[in-house]
Design a protein that fits this description.
about 400 residues; alpha/beta; Rossmann fold; Transcription Regulator spoIIAA; 3 domains; 5-stranded parallel sheet; 17 helices; about 40% helix; binds iron/sulfur cluster
Length: about 400
């Protein structure tokens, strides 16, 4: 039972990827604009936002676990649940029913789909949880007059300093790739690119607020601005449609961001190996592009890659790394890997270990395969035992540490 009427403070708990972190930072700014203050602990919060992740069952279980924690509170905050769990139950490509989600989270007051996250302040106003005055002030603030006339001065923002200096800017949402193990195309829906104007305006505003580093985020940043046909052409024939000229729209975007004064470093995440064109590889030489690049490989074995519906081979991945190293010898690579995918043998797993020895990743997110309801891989028998998955995980992690220490 909600016992606070006018909300004054908020706390956001974020799970998952950079896209979720970027969304949470944006929401915290919006909430600050309507006069709410971010607090570090849930105890002090009138409003609690959970920005959820669905990638692994464990991530979902952490969210469901909040019911037990919140049950101990006599005065509960107003609870908003957003992120991929809500997308998985309410989006066009839902994996489970909204009724099921409601049954598991009866303690939630408001469900918000991830693509609709910034509607939260409006919805709070509609429900009378924020004042008309603060809402009006927000509208003034949104005229972009940051400074004396604005309602919230920059120093009032509850956004953390490191988040101001390293601004995460989402450039696209969703995914159409349907890798067989992944829930993102269901949870986040169709891949949609933000307009160039919106992105550049957000980057410039971030710089005004003090950003030195800009991280462009999305599930597939390289395919930003491409329609389905163009993506298909690129992924099946490695070429762009003639009307796009000889450059990926994302390459052009990088050039534009690189020209914005005040930025010292540009990073982007996530990239898939199958969306790299030579013009993008060449753009890595731009002066502000970071020397860290995250490219998800997922497995070092071609049969497993095929079962994962990845659109690249191990050979193509290695060749891409070599091409990038030619233009940027200082480039450090990060990757994502899944061990214990259905039917993966020890030998096939060792191919992934071999890839680690060759590429020498600086960063590696190693996950044990977890079956996700509604995905294509859930139809395959999850036949690698948990013990074996754990062994492969530990083996790869130790190998990665060893290689990193040798570097
Ligand atoms: S590219 Fe594959 S792994 Fe990445 S979000 Fe899309 S479906 Fe998931």
């Amino acid at each position: 039972m909600l016992s606070r009427k006018l909300l004054k403070t908020f706390h956001i708990k974020t799970y998952g990827c950079q896209a979720n972190i970027a969304d949470s930072i944006k929401l915290s700014e919006e909430l600050a604009n309507i006069g709410l203050f971010e607090v570090d602990s849930l105890e002090e919060a009138d409003l609690f936002v959970i920005n959820s992740c669905s990638v692994r069952q464990k991530s979902e279980d952490k969210v469901y676990g909040w019911g037990r924690i919140l049950g101990k509170y006599t005065v509960k905050p107003y609870i908003v649940l957003t992120g991929c769990i809500v997308g998985s139950a309410r989006g066009k490509r839902r994996r489970f029913s909204f009724k099921e989600l409601e049954r598991k989270t009866p303690w939630v007051n408001m469900y918000v789909e991830p693509n609709d996250l910034l509607s939260v302040p409006d919805r709070l106003l509609e429900k009378g949880f924020t004042t008309k005055e603060s809402y009006e002030n927000r509208k003034n603030y949104n005229t972009n007059e940051i400074g004396e006339k604005s309602f919230c001065k920059l120093s009032d923002f509850s956004v953390k300093k490191e988040n101001i200096e390293n601004a995460l800017v989402n450039i696209s949402y969703g995914c159409d790739n349907f890798c067989t193990y992944c829930v993102v195309p269901y949870a986040r829906g169709e891949e949609v690119s933000r307009s160039q104007g919106d992105i550049l305006a957000e980057v410039k505003e971030a710089v005004k607020k003090g950003a030195k580093k800009i991280t462009l985020c999305g599930q597939n940043v390289n395919s930003w601005g491409l329609n389905r046909e163009a993506k298909f052409k690129l992924r099946t024939g490695g070429v762009l449609p003639p009307e796009l000229g000889d450059k990926l729209p994302f390459t052009k975007l990088l050039h534009d961001v690189n020209q914005i004064e005040g930025i010292k470093e540009i990073e982007f995440i996530s990239s898939n190996p199958f969306d790299f064109t030579q013009d993008l590889i060449d753009a890595l030489k731009l002066e502000k592009i970071s020397n860290y690049l995250h490219i998800a490989v997922q497995s070092g074995n071609n049969d497993i890659l095929q079962k994962m519906n990845r659109r690249h081979t191990v050979e193509e991945f290695k060749s891409l790394i070599n091409k990038i190293r030619k233009v940027r010898p200082d480039m450090e690579f990060g990757t994502d890997v899944i061990v214990g995918f259905p039917s993966e043998t020890r030998d096939q797993f060792m191919d992934t270990a071999d890839l680690f020895r060759k590429v020498k990743f600086s960063v590696a997110f190693i996950s044990m395969y977890s079956q996700r309801k509604g995905t294509a891989a859930a139809l395959l028998k999850d036949d690698v035992s948990r013990k074996e998955k754990r062994w492969r995980h530990n083996y790869l992690l130790s190998l990665w540490r060893e290689i990193k220490n040798e570097k």
